[in-house]
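Form 7-S
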Amino acid sequence: MTDTETPEAIRYTADVVALTPGGDVLLIERDWPPYVGAWALPGGHVDPGETSRAAAARELAEETGVQVAVDDLRQIGVWDSPERDPRGRYVTVAYAAVVPAGTRITAGDDARTARWCPLDDLPGRPAFDHADILRAATAPIY
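Output:
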């Protein structure tokens, strides 16, 4: 088998766009490479035997303390560009959830900190392709 025939290692992840009715989005400050110190959506690896939707709810709770029911997550789409992550090939399924304004957050797990940010005043460019995911999550539905 040549290198071009070797199967590509693909990692499966889930990300969450948690929004308030007033237009704030929940972001975490990454505490690990790549993009240490950059702002990103909560998310992470899908565990064996777990659906991406369940992983999204779990990662949101682990990284921010925000609990959402799995059934309250709406799938936004799949992001699978080969260049989306410098560590290798990562495919993510992104979900959105609306949570009440004033929902308390607590940074945990892999997050240095977490905070609510107005969609029109983000703290710099989000890590990875999370700006594209945010645009998709907040686009008008026709």
